[in-house]
Amino acid sequence: MPERTMLGRTMLGRTKMLKRMGMQWPIIQAPMAGVSTPRLAAEVSKAGGLGSIGVGATDADGARRMITELQALTDRTFNVNVFVHPTPTHDAARESAWREWLTPHFQAFEATPPARLDTLYTSVADDPDMQAMLLETRPPVVSFHFGLPSRDFIRALKEAGIWLMATATHPEEARAIERAGLDAIVAQGFEAGGHRGMFDPKAADTQLSTAVLTRQLVDATHLPIIAAGGIMNGEAIAAALANGAVAAQLGTAFIACPESSADAAYRDALAGPAAHDTRMTSIVSGRPARILANRFVSLMEDPSCPAPPDYPLTYAAGKALNAAARSQGDTGFGAQWAGQGAPLARAMPAGELMAILGKEYRMACRAMSLRR
Question: Where does this protein have coiled-coil stretches (predicted)?
C-alpha cells in the first residue's frame, strides 16, 4: 500500500475511533483480567482514554457486577474483554505427571497438589450465560482474547450496537478477525505482558515485536490497528501511531496505579529488580504468558519439567501452589504478569498518569513534526 494512502487511512481511522469513543487521547488501558478494576477503567475513561475491564476470570454474575459498578462510576465509553480459549481437553496421564512433578514444591509449604485440575475459566464460546449478559448490558466495546466466538454471537453483538475488537499476534489471525466482521484489531507484540493472544497456543509463535507486527497488520488488513506491548510513555505511543496504529494499548503502565487490584507483593516486584527480567512461560497457566521473574518461573529451568496440561487446567495447580506458598509468607509463586517495559512503570493515580501520557504524546508528536 502506498505510504500516503496508508497514512491517510490511519489518520481517518484514528479520528473516527476517537470520535465514536469520545476519547481525547489514542490510549487504551489493557483489560488485564484479575488486575484491572471498574475504578481503574473509569478513571482512564474519564481522563480521555478507553478504560477496560477483563471478565474472563469470572462468571456472568461477577461480570455483570463489574459492568454495573463501572457504569455507576462513569458515563464514558469503556471496554469489556472476554476469553475465547478452546475447551480444554483432560489428559489423565499428563495431569497426573504435572501434579507429581509439583508435589515436592507443595510439600515445601506443607500442602499437596489438588486431586483434580478443574477448568477455572470458561470460554465465552462455551458460556451462554455470559453471552446473554453481554447482549443484555450492551457495553460500548467488547474485545476478545485467545480467539473468536461464533459468527452468530458476533452478529448479535454487532446488531446490539457494540463495537468489537480482538487480539492478533500474527497476520493470519488478523485476517481471520477481519473476515469475522470485527471493527478493530489489537496487535499484541512479543514484548507484551500477560497471556499471548494466540488462537492456537500449540502453534509456533512468530514472536513479532509490537512495531513489526503493527506494520504488518496495517498492510495485511483494512481494519484499524491498535498497538500493544512494551508501550509505557507518550513517546512510545507516538511511535506506535507513526507505525500506522490508530491507538496504543497500555497494560503494565497501569499496574502500579492505586486503582488496580495488584497486591503489595506484585507492586514491590514491579518496582524492584524483577522488572528488568520478564520471562515468557507456560508453567503458570498452560499458555504462553510474560511474567516477572520469580520462584515459580525459575521452575521451568528444571530439565524434568513435564509438558503442562491445557489452559486453564494448569492454572488450577498454579493458583493452589501460590495459595500454599502465601500461607507460609512466600509471595514468589504469584502470577505477576508484566511486559518488557516494566522498568518504566510509574506509581501514581490513573488520572494523573493519563495526563502525563497525553502531555508526553503531544510533545513527541510536535518533535516528530519538527524533525520532518
Answer: none
> What's the CA gap between 43 and 321, in Å, rounded?
34
Phi, psi angles (nearest 5°) of residue 215: -65, -40
Q: pTM for this one? A: 0.95
Q: Any idea which of 14-23, 229-238, 328-337 has the lowest mean pLDDT?
A: 14-23
**Residue from 253, 245, 265, 266 nearest 193 by CA:** 253
Question: Cα(333)–Cα(83) distance, rounded to whole angstroms?
Answer: 23
Cα radius of gyration rounded to whole Å, the chain = 20
User: Would the pLDDT of 18 be above 90?
Assistant: no
Domains of the chain: 3-85+121-264+345-371 (3.20.20.70), 90-120+272-337 (no CATH)
| Backbone dihedral angles phi then psi of residue 81, each to the nearest 5 degrees | -105, 135
> CB within 8 A of 294, min separation 6: which ones?
269, 274, 332, 333, 334, 336
Question: Which residue blocks in 184-233 are alpha helix, DSSP H?
Answer: 210-220
Grid cell at residue 198: 494466540
Model confidence at 359: pLDDT above 60: yes
145-170: buried (b, 16+ CB within 10 Å) or exposed (e) per residue?
Answer: bbbbbeeebbebbeeeebbbbbbbbb
Which of 38-42, 200-204, 235-239 is least confident? 200-204
Judged by average pLDDT, the poorest of 39-43, 134-138, 295-299, 348-352 is 295-299
**HSE of 370, CA atoms in CB hemisphere, 13 A:** 6
pLDDT in tens, 215-256: 999 999 999 999 999 999 999 999 999 999 999 999 999 999
How many angstroms separate the CA atoms of 218 and 203, rounded? 23
Rounded Cα–Cα distance for residues 28 and 23 (Å):
9
Is 78 within 8 Å of 51 (Cβ atoms)? Answer: yes
Instruction: Dig out the grid coordinates for 23 from the structure.
Output: 476519547
